[in-house]
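::Encoded backbone::
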Amino acid sequence: MTFTIGTTHGIDFSVYLQPQPTYYAETTASTLWDTTNSESEAAYLRWGALPQTIIPERPAAVRFEPITYKVKEGDNPSIIGTYFGLQPSTIVWANTEVKENPDLLRIGQTLVIPPVDGVLHTVSESDTVAGLAGKYKVDVAVITTYPGNKLGGDAEKPLIIGQQVMVPGGVMPYDPPQPVVVVTPAPAPAPRAAAPTTRPATTSPATTRSSSTSTGYVGSTGCCRWPVTGRITQNPSRYHMALDIATSMGTPVVASDGGRVVVAGWDNTGYGWTVVIDHGNGLRTRYAHFSSYVVNVGNYVNKGQLIGRIGSTGRSTGPHLHFEVLRNGSRQNPWNWLP
């Protein structure tokens, strides 16, 4: 017996009744194909609603106020930015301590997270809406109409000292960093795998191909090599002119080029166990956060020679190498010096 129950796109959907047991061959969310278990090959489509749960999409929560976040292992401004859908620069600009040196986050450190990209400004005496708009390169209306600022579109409304004003899309004025003065730190105890001679040996356990020769130190080549292989967790930017390269604790780190060691020890500014090599002609490289180092100040090292091992000393959120290239004291983009 067949009952027609409706037509869709010109196709009749019917119910076919047959007094034999049935089994289900294929199931979809809204239809069920049944095939009889008899000698005949009769089959029918049973059209009906099957149990299913539909979860509607929900828009992401919108916030207009800053929140706080505690730094976890492995964090840096780039990674934290991805957590909240923000640019790394927004994170840096909102936190004075980070702005001064974005490389030196520490686990457990509390950061302010703005609601949108831009500049979160704390009002000081004589600040005005027009002044902030000019400073951060936005229209006045961008500030006055932002709900979190509670200005109601009034550009003349006085700001309160200490009030936080969000400047969506604002850009912090760029202050060029001062040249880095590399000072040899006072001697400090440090774990060492070995103490090299002033003129290093010809081979290195950290590389399969060394630039050394049987005569010892061969000088700088003028071309840098990668000091370690790993995952780039933070690229150079105007607030972080360095490469952060994450890899396993204890991984060997080698000299990017030949030169004289001018720093080998503890850095009190947050870099932990640090090595700096002078390659001549105003060029230096810095290697920070070592777990151990194997050179002393005054040693000469060849390109590719072991100088230390990956660690997380100083203000660091996980094992990685902080690698800088400096020219006459100014930080350079390492990508311009690496192959």
About this structure: The chain has three domains: 2-47, 67-168, 176-339. The longest helix spans residues 77-84. The longest strand covers residues 259-267.
